[in-house]
Fold this protein.
Amino acid sequence: MKIVILDGYTANPGDLSWKELEDLGTLTVYDRTSPEETIARAKDAEIVLTNKVIINREVIAQLPRLKYIGVLATGYNVVDIEAAQERGIIVTNVPAYSTESVAQMVFAHLLNVTNRTDHYATQNRQRRWTENEDFCYWDFQHMELAGKTFGIIGLGNIGRRVAEIALAFGMKVKALTSKSADTLPTGIEKADLETLLTTSDVISLHCPLTDATHHLINHKTLQLMRPSTILINTGRGPLVDDQAVASALTSGQLAAFCADVLTKEPPQADNPLLGLPNAFITPHIAWATEEARSRLLRVVISNVQAFLNGTPKNVISSEV
């Protein structure tokens, strides 16, 4: 069985092992694969694993031996599921492997904004504190989280974990979710979008990217937020309109924007968010702790083993 990994570097830049996959077949691992290289590299493979390399209908049509596509992530929009099903190709993903890591990143961003620890550490490496007239100094108005309202859009695995942590900080939690109010965990109040946007001090995005949620955060919805609001996106880049958020940050309509994802990745040099002092952007690394990547690889290997045993799991269908 020939197994090809098209873009293995981000999941495993060398600190983890592919050995268990090597034991399941003839394995070829490419760090990165361009669209022009995809078909040539995958043409003889029965099993193809991809993280961000697109496997669309055109590609599938030119891979006659392909039987299985494994996505090295939870999101599977890189694969044309319908085209795969038509060919009888199994497609799997890796659900819920990064829940703890992404939730941790949400609060790393939030605490960076409210406490600016990196700013002060940088200042004090330059001896600013040693030259200060008083025993302390501060350059920003700091914010205590207890008692503030944390709004969560999307209450899946990550959204629920974020809610638990927010509650542990003593925050009030409101959620926009399809779940009924009587099924929500204690402490989480169900809210409609307008209520959540107008009453939250912090808003965190955890909903899937669909036609309905594309640019959910736009000029209109930003106007509903308080000027003191902190907006966090660790979900999908296109949930927000980058230009609208940049304008809101510049005008003072939004206090801070924290994002681990952007509409285009890597971003273009002229992305308006990159140069703003109240935009805090990390390079899509919330999922990338060693622990989360280790879980990812374990599930990927288990998915392949299950497929080879004739009992595939974590299978995606076009009806999902």
